[in-house]
Design goal:
The chain has 14 helices and ten strands. The protein is of the alpha/beta class. The strands form two sheets. The protein has a six-stranded mixed sheet, sandwiched between helices.
Amino acid sequence: MLALKDIEEARAALDGLVNETPTHRWRSPLIESRLGAAGAAFLKLEVLQLTGTFKVRGALLNALALDGPARERGVTAVSAGNHAIAVAFAAQRIGTSAKVVMMRTANPFRVAQVRAYGAELVQVPDVHAAFETALAIERDEGRTLIHPFEGRTTVLGSATLGLELARQALDLDAVIVPIGGGGLGAGVAAAIKATQPACRVYGVEPEGADTMHRSFAANSPQGIDQVSSIADSLGAPHAAPYSFELCRQHVDELVKIDDDAMRRAMGMLFLETKLALEPAGAAAPAALLGPLAEVLRGKRVAAIVSGTNIDARTFFEQALFP
């Protein structure tokens, strides 16, 4: 388990190295139509985080924990893009090297960001090959693998986001968090339950990447054969023990959304808040506007906008506008 003291210590370790991102009150006729006049919606804007996503929190915590010899050998990572960018940034920040593995389908903007931070890039056909390649780099080159969602330090990084939210938006009835591998859901849920125990936590997955749904049903970490969703940042090929157990303890309910729900949320958030989000960043608001709207009517609800790294052309190709 993650104690509140552990999360507070992690947040102190990151002080001055990451942004304390704002929580924005989302007011609009659309939100009032979903939640009612008594409801309130809040957006935790990790889109304003360094590197554009929450991933930098866990990446930096892991990098800061490296001893001298480990820093000399460098780090590696596997990612659809956001975690790769974060690890490249963290490596540059502490003065070590990074060799990261990404899929060939990765958004060009993400590839450019990884290279801009000085990381060596290896591209492979799919997510399963990416994990295998990163593990081989760890084994053969002695680099430390900074996992995208598994492990106590990575989850603690995500928990610092939950701690900030809990202190920025008081007396919440519900928090909605996107789930890929489960590290963000595990950390945010642990922090929320430690600070606002009556608050319900909802995890959101794409229909084409429902690893945590399968894991909850089987009561053990499960995998999927392939990812079939535009939300590639949520396309983890498997769940893993530590983050799965924390999600099982603290996430009250899981919901699924389809790609069109994320596309519509991307368009709506652009029109109402001027945020240009990748699909994964729009997943929690999509659940708020869709399958969770009725159950959360009249409630104080926060949705995690986990971040965005997307080029303008892809955004306007994917977003659906009313």
